[in-house]
Every structure is written in structure tokens, then in C-alpha cells.
């Protein structure tokens, strides 16, 4: 996790204070913010509590409206730009302390297709509790990416020893093969991935949930993963290269769906 200078602030148990490293272990959610407004806070809070209940045996007893208010306070204190997307990270540790912190502004505004198209390589490890965003899973992801970079790839595709792609909650995968979008099971536990699935249906794609295998990926048309920013389209896996056609349309549809729902809610 990024370490900020001392003039950066966070919210700890509802109180604004100077940023300091988080105590592990913790579960977390990355919330998309734009213009001091956070998106899908209630859904992110539900996912955080699902993970906390499963791993720690308790959840965060706070409502979404309070999280939204404290997030706006945090963004204001850190002089966040109103014209770029930032990640607001909601975290709950094993002692029951919660915190909000925000990253620096991105070059994007809203859900989009990121300009980076990384190539990936398979790294066979078994990450802990891969369906839940946690500090342990984040450490495993960093380890896998470091191993991939040492072998001249940008990022890792985490797999098991038998060649099955691990459903990693840090980067839920979507494979496009013809007119079918296959989503990893972890996608069902990710707010933005659920939105991406809705976007795929809007574009007329058949959506199915299934474990992915390396052999399937080596025949696919497109491969991408979903984060709070939207879509990251993968350029290649080994000698196999991917297109970037539907990935951009899926990202655009994600933003359109959000804007439509948001405008309808405001009426």
C-alpha cells in the first residue's frame, strides 16, 4: 500500500488524523470516487462485511450514509481533485478498527478502459482466501506480480498447479470468446465486476460464470480484469495476443449504466 507524506489524512474509527500504516490483518474494499462522491458505497460495505464475518466473525456496524459523509470529509482534507477518479479504501482490521484512506488522483474520470494493456504470465501459487479482499491476498498478489516482472512480464496470472486460473478478488477476470463472456466466480463478490457483467449483457453477450483454464485463455479473443477504475485489457499471455475491442465497449457501458441509474435516483 502506498505510503503518504505526513500531510496526508485518513479517517480512523470516525476521526480524522494523519495517515499511518494500517495494522494487519484486515479486509478492505476499493471504492470509486469522482467529484467527492463515492459510488456503490452500500454494496461495498456489504462485501466488506461478508468478508469480515467469514474471516473475523464480525462485521462493521456502521451505515453507508456515514461512510459516504466521512469519505467526502477525507477527500476534502486531502485536497482531492473534483475531475479525476480516486480510490477510497475502506478497511476493517481483526481488532474491529476501521479506516478510510484515499490514493492520489488518477488520469481517468469515471469507469473507463485503462490505457495500460499489460502482458501477463502464469505464476502458480495458492493465495489465502482468494474470494475476499484482504491484506493477505494483497500480499500474495504483490508477490506474484514481482515474480512475473522478474521474467519480463508486467503482471501475474495466478494459477493453481493444474493450470486453473485462481479466482482472485483483487483482479476478477473476464474472458471473451466469440459472443460469450466468461466471468470468474470471484466476479460475483466484486461490486464493479457485477456492473461489468451487467454491461456485457447490455452489449448482447452471453454471460456465464466458470473457472478459467490456461488452455481456454490461449484460445480466447479478449482477456481483461475489473478494478474500481473499470477495465484493464490484457495484451498477451505467452505467445497468445488479445484484441481490445469489446473491453472498451464494456468499460463505456459500465459508466453509462451507472449514470443512468444515478440520474434516475436523483429524479
Can you describe this structure?
- By secondary structure, the chain is an alpha+beta fold.
- The chain folds into two domains: about 10-100, D-amino Acid Aminotransferase, Chain A, domain 1 (2-Layer Sandwich), CATH 3.30.470; about 110-265, D-amino Acid Aminotransferase, Chain A, domain 2 (Alpha-Beta Barrel).
- It has helices spanning about 40-55, 65-75, 135-150, 190-200, 215, 245-265; strands at about 10, 15-20, 25-35, 35-40, 85-95, 100, 110-115, 120-125, 155-160, 175, 180-185, 205-210, 220-225, 230-235, 235, 240.
- The strands form three sheets. A six-stranded antiparallel sheet has the order 2-1-6-5-3-4. Strands 7-14-13-10-11-12 form a six-stranded mixed sheet, covered by helices on one side. The chain has a four-stranded mixed sheet with strand order 9-8-15-16.
- α4 (about 190-200) packs across α6 (about 245-265).
- The longest helix is centred in the last third of the chain and has 21 residues, at about 245-265.
- The radius of gyration is 18 Å and the shape is globular.
- About 40% of the residues are buried.
- The model is unreliable at about 1-5 (pLDDT under 50).
Amino acid at each position: 500500500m502506498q505510503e503518504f507524506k505526513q500531510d496526508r489524512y485518513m479517517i480512523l474509527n470516525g476521526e480524522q488524523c494523519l495517515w499511518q500504516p494500517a495494522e494487519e490483518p484486515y479486509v478492505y474494499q476499493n471504492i470509486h470516487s469522482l467529484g467527492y462522491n463515492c459510488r456503490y458505497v452500500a454494496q461495498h460495505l456489504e462485501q466488506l462485511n461478508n468478508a469480515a464475518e467469514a474471516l473475523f466473525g464480525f462485521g462493521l456496524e456502521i451505515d453507508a450514509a456515514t461512510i459516504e459523509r466521512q469519505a467526502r470529509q477525507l477527500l476534502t482534507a486531502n485536497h482531492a481533485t473534483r475531475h479525476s477518479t480516486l480510490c477510497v479504501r475502506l478497511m476493517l482490521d481483526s481488532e474491529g478498527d476501521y479506516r478510510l484512506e484515499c490514493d492520489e488522483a488518477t488520469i481517468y474520470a469515471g469507469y473507463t478502459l485503462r490505457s495500460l494493456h499489460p502482458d501477463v504470465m502464469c505464476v502458480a501459487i495458492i493465495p489465502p482466501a482468494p474470494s475476499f479482499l484482504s491484506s493477505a491476498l494483497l500480499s500474495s498478489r504483490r508477490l506474484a506480480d514481482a515474480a512475473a516482472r522478474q521474467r519480463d512480464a508486467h503482471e501475474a496470472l495466478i494459477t493453481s498447479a493444474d493450470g486453473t486460473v485462481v479466482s482472485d478478488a483483487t483482479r476478477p477476470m473476464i474472458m471473451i470468446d466469440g459472443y460469450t463472456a466468461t466471468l470468474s466466480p470471484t466476479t460475483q463478490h466484486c461490486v464493479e465486476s457485477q456492473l461489468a457483467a451487467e454491461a456485457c449483457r447490455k452489449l448482447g453477450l452471453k454471460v456465464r460464470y466458470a473457472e478459467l483454464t490456461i488452455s481456454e485463455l490461449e484460445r480466447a479473443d479478449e482477456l481483461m480484469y475489473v478494478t474500481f477504475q473499470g477495465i484493464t485489457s490484457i495484451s498477451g499471455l505467452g505467445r497468445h495476443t488479445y484484441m481490445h475491442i469489446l473491453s472498451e465497449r464494456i468499460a463505456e457501458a459500465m459508466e453509462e449504466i451507472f449514470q443512468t441509474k444515478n440520474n434516475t435516483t436523483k429524479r
